[in-house]
Amino acid sequence: MVKVNLSVLALGVTLLLLAETWAQNPRKRLAPPKPNKAQCCDEVRSLKVQVANLTSLLEELSRKQDTELMNVLRQLMELDKQNRQQEARVTEAESKYSEINNRVEIMQLQTLQSATQTSSDAIYDCASLYSKNYRISGEYKLPKDDFLGTPELNVFCDMETNGGGWTLIQRRKIGLTSFNRDWKQYKSGFGSIRGDFWLGNDHIFRITRQPSMLRIEMEDWEGQTRYAEYGFFTVGNELNSYKLFLANYSGNAGDSLRYHNNTNFSTIDKDNDKCVDDCASRRKGGYWYNCCTDSNLNGVFYRYGEHTKSSDGITWYGWHGSNYSLKKVEMKVRPAGFQP
Ligand SMILES: [Ca+2]
């Protein structure tokens, strides 16, 4: 009897406990059974995969953003470039227009002048044209003069820079004319007087028989300009290999022609330099080579991007060193006593 009673009591207690548990936490009973170890790892793995997917998605998005940003930047740069090209075209058109105007005016003036010219007011350079009130920069024709023994010669006059009256003896700006020429070509001159040219050693000799000065103007690929001026400049005749004499430097480009002072002119076919090397072949121009250069204004014209890769370019060591080929150069002379 006691045994049965005890069993009934135990059952009752159990039922009571169960009921209490149910009342306290009814949801717990509905919760799924605790996962075993394998299930847990599966979940972690799947979470890890999701995280990895999200990460790569984020990376992809950030890459896309970078690419888009780069594209926008590229478009901006392209627009800027087009803008600058258009500006350059307008500037070029304007300068061509004013050049044509100048040529017409010069032709009219020279026609007038030649009708009234006498032998006493001979014209042998741009300075004498300036003193006859020609004040426009451009191409002029110097008349043949039997008394001076000068042939007719086309020259380009700079009537503006530092008082004007300058006769150009050299220009580099377009880059299509080769300056790697022989003695004969350097003697008589080559190129186009409104573009790239060498006036000719015979003409330079003749023009600088009177005490003369030289001015060299340079421009780099960043658009900066510098100049070098020599208060004294002359060259010998052909028998003296057009030997260079200069002095009295002033300017802001550095004195990079001094090293060439008292040297003879050399060309590809005439090695008159002061070097074992053949400087004219090495530097690909005609110049007063020493051994070999501190400047090489008749060197190879290199375009932007190519202008710092060679030592035979249009160099002026005093400004940009031995491996920077300049964008533009003009060499011009006028009488030392010139009064604007
Ligand atoms: Ca030599």
TrEMBL record:
GO cellular component: extracellular region
Residues annotated as signal peptide: 1-23
Keyword Ribosomal protein carried by entry: no
Localization: Secreted
Keyword Secreted: yes
UniProt xrefs under Pfam families: Fibrinogen_C
Keywords linked to the UniProt accession: Coiled coil, Disulfide bond, Glycoprotein, Secreted, Signal
Domain Fibrinogen C-terminal: residue ranges: 117-337
GO BP field: blood coagulation
Coiled-coil residue spans: 44-110
Record SMART domains: FBG (SM00186)
Taxonomy, superkingdom: Eukaryota
NCBIfam families attached to this UniProt entry: GGGWT_bact
Protein name: Fibrinogen C-terminal domain-containing protein
UniProt source species: Dicentrarchus labrax (European seabass)
Gene, per the UniProt record: angptl7
